[in-house]
Structure formats: C-alpha cells, structure tokens
Amino acid sequence: MRYGSKGRGRERAFHSRWNRPTREALYRARDGVFLGVCKGVARHFDVPVNMLRAVVLILFFVTGVWPVGLLYLIAAMIMRVEPAVPFANEDERTFYDAYANSRTGVLQRMKRSFDNLDRRLRRMEAVVTSRDFDWERRMRDS
Questions:
Q1: Looking at residue 24, what DSSP letter applies?
Q2: Which of 73, 89, 58, 69 is nearest to 28 (CA)?
Q3: Could you say which DSSP state residue 51 is in?
Q4: What per-residue confidence (pLDDT) applies to 139?
Q5: φ/ψ bin of 36: left (φ > 0), alpha (ψ from -120 to 50), beta (otherwise)
Q6: Rounded distance between C-alpha atoms, residue 10 and residue 33, angstroms
Q7: 40 with 82: CB under 8 angstroms?
Q8: pLDDT, average across residues 104-109
Q9: Which residues sit opposite 81 in a β-bridge?
Q10: 49 near 42, Cβ under 8 Å?
Q11: Chain center to CA of 4
Q12: Non-local CB neighbours of 76 within 8 Å, separated by 6+ positions
C-alpha cells in the first residue's frame, strides 16, 4: 500500500460528496409507475425510489386515501415532465424550462427569431437579384 493513499481517498470522497454540482431540477420521470412523481422526487433528492414509494403508500392508507391521493395528483399536474433527451448545455436547460413554464413566451421568441431570419434572407435575395450584382458577375466572368 502506498504512503498516504488512504488519506487522499478520504479527501477525495469527502470532496466529491460535499462539492457536488448543482442539483437537477424537479421533473416527473417518464418511466415512472404512476405518473412518475415518486421516481422524479427520488431522483431529485437522491433517495431510493422504492423507499419513497413505500412511504407514500403508507401515508396514503394512514391518512384515509384522499389527502395524499389529492396531493399526489396535484404534484403530477404541477411538476414538469423530464425532457426526452438529456441537456447538452445550460442553454438547452434554460430553453426547456422557459418552454415548460411559458409556452407563449417561447413561441414569441421563436417568432422573433424566424422574423429576423426572414428579414435577413430577403435582404440577401434583394442583393443577389439586383442589376448591380448581375453586372458585377458578368464583369468578373469576362
């Protein structure tokens, strides 16, 4: 055994445990058993999903079905569904969160982007179809 490897291993474990990257947003899991609420919450808080399901089932029967059942359904309606494809960068996460929260805002931003692209394309078409462009092309070719 190398000198000091034990201590470095502990430091590394301590360092990785307490300096984790920021937590993922709270999403409903697509592959959950019933609406994906328990699996999404378990992934977010990094707890075993079966333990969380057992707690929810116990609370479900202890409270008389309706309070926990109603809270579960409300959570399913409020929580966003996790994206089908993992995010490549923070910009994609921001776009997805904005879309999931405000579809009209995202549609307005997309419309502005497409309008801007359309305006640029029209400008390019105007240059290419102008007489000056045709004249310059003819002069270069001869």
A1: P
A2: 73
A3: H
A4: 82
A5: left
A6: 38
A7: yes
A8: 76
A9: 28
A10: yes
A11: 41
A12: 28, 35, 36, 37
